[in-house]
Design goal:
Elements: H1 4-23, H2 38-41, H3 45-48, E1 58-63, H4 66-77, E2 80-81, E3 87-88, E4 94-101, E5 106-112, E6 126-130, H5 133-145, E7 154-155, E8 160-165, E9 171-176
Parallel strand pairs: 1-5, 6-9
Antiparallel strand pairs: 2-4, 3-4, 4-5, 7-8, 8-9
């Protein structure tokens, strides 16, 4: 019998996948202008002759400590570990954990790799979409209340941004769909953007 949480995540997968492609820059977005626009820029697979892609199966982050990283994603984003999906070697040693990350529409794998994890320090592999500035301010207050290291609300090219660092120094960005005009000054000198 499959986990209903996993089935629910699979159903959400298609709708959210285009936003993630945009967040990874696949849909032609420029730095700091992470407002997902995959609908305008997505490649028509049928026109290209490529077989169908159903969406993103899961994301994978290297971590130095599975339990510490699991606790971070649970606290910061409400993710839940799917213990039945733990990855173990034949000798029983845990090397990966799968988290149901409710708002992104797919699972997040935390893969134990204490050596190579340093290669991802400072990297911002995903940008999550939030509604507007008021929503972003709520996220900032949430991170603050949980004692999690994060940026202030930053002004970017077309919207606002908050960045939070996970235990391995990887940066997760929350960017507004609400936009602003060129009259606002971009926070170019912030270490959280560059």
């Amino acid at each position: 019998m499959q986990n209903t949480s996993t089935n629910s995540s699979r159903r959400r997968l298609g709708a959210v996948s285009l936003a993630f492609l945009a967040a990874f820059g696949i849909a032609g977005l420029s730095a700091c202008a992470d407002t997902p626009s995959a609908g305008k820029n997505a490649v028509d697979a049928k026109a290209s002759g490529a077989p169908a892609i159903l969406g993103i199966h899961h994301l994978k982050f290297l971590v130095a400590d599975i339990d510490k990283s699991t606790a971070f994603y649970e606290t910061a984003f409400g993710a839940k570990r799917l213990v039945a999906m733990d990855h173990r070697r034949p000798d029983g040693v845990l090397f990966g954990a799968i988290l149901d990350f409710p708002s992104i529409g797919t699972e997040l794998e935390l893969r134990l790799d204490p050596v190579r994890v340093n290669e991802q320090k400072g990297l911002d592999p995903i940008t999550l979409a939030v509604g507007g500035l008021a929503d972003l301010e709520k996220w900032s207050a949430h991170f603050e209340a949980k004692g999690l290291r994060h940026s202030p609300v930053l002004t970017c090219l077309v919207g606002w941004l908050v960045v939070i660092e996970d235990p391995d120094g990887r940066r997760i960005r929350l960017y507004t769909r609400q936009t602003h005009g060129p009259e606002l000054k971009v926070d170019w000198i912030s270490p959280w953007i560059n």
